[in-house]
Design brief:
- By secondary structure, the chain is α/β, with parallel strands linked by helices.
- It has a single domain (33-290), classed as Rossmann fold, CATH 3.40.50.
- It contains 12 helices and 10 strands.
- It is globular, with a radius of gyration of 18 Å.
- It binds adenosine-5'-diphosphate and magnesium ion.
Length: 304
Amino acid sequence: MTIQSNDKVITLSSRKSFRPGTRDRLPEPERRPARIVSITSGKGGVGKTNIVANLGYQLSRAGKRVLILDADLGLGNLDILLGLAPRHNLSHVLTGEKHIRDIVIQGPGQLQILPAASGIQELTHLTSDQKMSMLYELDRLLDTVDIFLIDSAAGISSNVLDFSVSAQEIVVVVTPEPTSITDAYALMKVLSTKYAEKTCRLIVNQVASEQEGREIFRQLNLVAQKFLAIKMEYFGCVLQDANLVRYVKQQRLISQADPESPASYGFKNLARRTMALPTAKASQGDPLLFWGHIFQNGAMSHKS
Ligand SMILES: Nc1ncnc2c1ncn2[C@@H]1O[C@H](COP(=O)(O)OP(=O)(O)O)[C@@H](O)[C@H]1O
Ligand SMILES: [Mg+2]
């Protein structure tokens, strides 16, 4: 099967042919494809992990089933942020010690976390049978969630971006620092020229006011409109909040510990916007296609 999606060609063998136990699956019409949202940035340390964790928490509070993929290969610290100590990760699935469902851990609220920072790169060494069986397991897991958030690494190398462009939505995080803004621009440029991405969304983190968030979006959007063929949409901002730093040190989520704090308010707004994202088109946001793409072209083939 070949599917043309967003200028990306995804080729999978017939979906049913590699799915063991097809009978115990829901019939196709009842499957609700998970929304796949990748949170990324040009520069590191801009708040991606905090955004993913708090956004995920707010979404799960709103009744959504949320799975977070910790995919920051370099500096995966989602587990530390949440005060969790996962005993297993994707590498244990690869060695056959565990099933995917056994490594998923529960975070605050109903949040589910797939610790994958270790193991993703090794996927490239699997035989095609092993890949198919892994795809099947991942697909089954995603069948059980509404929103799938990816905490990705920063930067513009292909092993980072191939991952992001497979998602249905790309959200770029930026802070008011000039270096963060120029790196975000560089990221959008690569997304547009190399990956032919047509849209991306922007979160401005650590702002002094909502007005500052809008202003940074306005400036970046002006340059993007002039020089890039990518459409930017404003997704919202999160205020600079000293309480967030305090809770990070205590390994607690500010959204849970202090829902009235300014940053928590921002995360709540981001959750509202995430729930209002357009539903996936038939060929996009399908978890199976997502994983298929990743395995074939993406991060898991470990190019850089
Ligand atoms: N809204 C915010 N207010 C205050 N500090 C923040 C905020 N967002 C992030 N930070 C600070 O930035 C640090 C890095 O955030 P993190 O989410 O780990 O970034 P990334 O995942 O992009 O590397 C946090 O530990 C915290 O100290
Ligand atoms: Mg991070």
